[in-house]
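G., before I forget:
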Amino acid sequence: RKEVEQDPGPFNVPEGATVAFNCTYSNSASQSFFWYRQDCRKEPKLLMSVYSSGNEDGRFTAQLNRASQYISLLIRDSKLSDSATYLCVVNTGRRALTFGSGTRLQVQP
Amino acid sequence: SAVISQKPSRDICQRGTSLTIQCQVDSQVTMMFWYRQQPGQSLTLIATANQGSEATYESGFVIDKFPISRPNLTFSTLTVSNMSPEDSSIYLCSVQPGGAYGYTFGSGTRLTVV
């Protein structure tokens, strides 16, 4: 079983739609959680950290369920510029990050 | 957050040769991480580079194939040795300058082995 699992997609949604991505992790000792965004041929960039209480940054909302070992990302009012691969990332305490395989989002005009 | 300068950005190399990738950070960091991203795949950790000690390699990666140097707290190199086409990939360095979040990545080195 992979340490971090994501639905690879692609998710094809129209502009203005709401889309949700899910992620599960296997190591119950994982300590911190992130969503990264990776554009084609670019390096990953931090989108947001994920906190147990849930957190929101503009159109983006992240949720963490430690009991179920489940992380989610909700994007409201999708923009064309949101088209990218979204990586679920977990820090198990070894200081390096473990990446999911990514979920590809394509927002259509 | 830290700014990382990674070079070269891309290279095309002959099989059997070696390529050294450099990462320079604009601040001192304890650990630097080297990742590989194969075509269509996510990132896989190669090794963790600490200043003043041997790098720690992940399962499936060995020092003879991927020697790493970490001469100071702002610089590291990864060498891909005796390359084969299977080594064609993007190689990225990463640091965590501080705090519980904010890992930063270099812009990556796109390597093609022919």
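The first strand of chain A starts at residue 4 and ends at 6. The two ends of chain A are 37 Å apart (CA to CA).

More on Monday.
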